[in-house]
Specification:
This protein has two helices and eight strands; from the N terminus they run E-H-E-E-E-E-H-E-E-E. By secondary structure, the chain is α/β, with parallel strands linked by helices. The strands form two sheets. The protein has a four-stranded mixed β-sheet with strand order 1-4-3-2, covered by helices on one side. Strands 5-8-7-6 form a four-stranded mixed β-sheet, with helices on one face. Strand 7 and strand 8 form a beta hairpin. The chain is globular, with a radius of gyration of 17 Å.
């Protein structure tokens, strides 16, 4: 049987590489791994790392057609990120001018979640990493170092779970 370990990366085609880079790096706090300008394809490729090692690849191409998000269409529906506290993440994003939907509770998992969009309208979800959380209460979810305060307002970025223990 095939043994899949985890998602390695998600590729996103954006309309403006600099605007998307600012959103994913400066606002969401992803780390730039590599950046290339591919002259022969008239495109850019930007590899961004998540704290768990998975990556988002941002691509730009000349005049890409817009992605239909509504009505829902076949293909990628949305990209979801786990956070420790959805309400805090929502409030922080809103303080940075990002429109965020109201927090809801999934009727099947009892996890809180909300949606917002990237600069090109790609739906992004924030889902709580464990059921019933309003703050970081499960110390077993963290390494021996306690989590940094939520959100990382001094750095002006969304603080991902366990980021303070990673050596970037």
């Amino acid at each position: 049987m095939l043994q899949l370990c985890r998602i390695h990366h998600v590729a996103i085609i954006c309309s403006d590489i600099e605007r998307s880079k600012a959103f994913y790096v400066n606002l969401l706090g992803l780390r730039v791994v590599a950046e290339q300008h591919r002259v022969e394809r008239q495109s850019h490729k930007l590899d961004l790392a998540m704290p768990d090692g998975s990556q988002i690849e941002l691509f730009s191409f000349p005049s890409p057609p817009p992605r239909p998000s509504r009505p829902e269409a076949q293909g990628l529906r949305h990209l979801a990120f786990a956070v420790d506290d959805v309400a805090h993440a929502k409030a922080w994003l809103e303080s940075k001018g990002v429109a965020v939907e109201p927090v809801r509770v999934d009727e099947y998992t009892s996890r809180r979640f909300t949606f917002f969009a990237d600069p090109d309208g790609l739906p992004l979800e924030l889902c709580e990493s464990h059921v019933g959380s309003t703050t970081s209460t499960r110390s077993s979810d963290w390494s021996s170092t306690p989590p940094a305060p939520w959100p990382d307002t001094a750095g002006g970025r969304l603080m991902w779970r366990n980021c303070d223990t990673l050596n970037w």
